[in-house]
What does this fold into?
Amino acid sequence: MSFGLGTDLAIDLGTANTCVFASGQGVIISEPSLIAFNTVTGAIEAVGQEARGMLGRTPANLRAVRPIRDGVIADFEAAEKMLNYFIRKTHHQLGGWTRPRVVIGVPAQVTPVERRAVKDSAYRAKVSEVFLVDEPMAAALGAGMPITEAAGNMIIDVGGGTTDIAVISLSGVVISRSVRVAGDAFDEAIMHHLKKNHELLIGERTAEEIKLQIGSATELAKPATMQVKGRHIGKGVPVKITITDAEVREALAEPLKTILKAVRETLDQIPPELSSDVFDRGIALCGGSALLRNLDRRIQQETQLPIKIVDEPLSAVVIGAGKMLADKALLKKLAVH
It folds into this structure.
């Protein structure tokens, strides 16, 4: 089957967000990785942004599902339908109907079984060819790092489900570490904190809003507060409380500790020659959760190395995967099997 360049796609199938890049067009879709089913008919009611509006608010016959958990497929049927939806939507926007070649970013340390699951889902979504690439490698390429040079480039990708840390040299991952702690763990920590300290039950959406509005990794220059509504556990009625940024920081301490430990362990294992490169060049930070206030400053304090948030942290992986579409030799070299 022949396909035009315009139909080839790069997909970052993220735990929180799915981004789609089309050759010659750039990033054309960036929507939540969510799908809402009708449990009676099995029909898809909503995907992406529309499904996000339903999260925690669905009636008994509707179920909002996040098919990707911790960076890997947790619900095969839902993932396949979501992939199919995004591919069809892309084709509809571009006006093409040929089966595309697809490059998909996966966390660096997923198992062969998990990789096979991603490939199978993509093939069932009617694509002609599937290539899987390591997310840190794609992110480094998307961030404009010189990955083909004989020099160490270090990148930290803090997504929704996983934090991927990698040191790259000569188009290869020299050392990598992946921890299943990232944006979702931040949300869960906030939910747990409010339940334990205020007997308040809140949903994922509210926890995410708290994180975005007053969450931070180090002390803020100007203290912030936020009013939060939820259900009181003891009284069973809706209540409203005010929380501070210091409280949210306390809630985030544990997941942040796990990420920082993984960063330090990776730095400990870098070969000496590459270590000096990382010292000179610093560390690139990307992923949606890289936008947590002062996360860069916190990592800098811990490592004593310069940290730079890349220009488009949320779409670095998909932009890098998109660049590989245009370079067959590089794609062949970087594809994981």
The two ends are 23 Å apart (CA to CA).
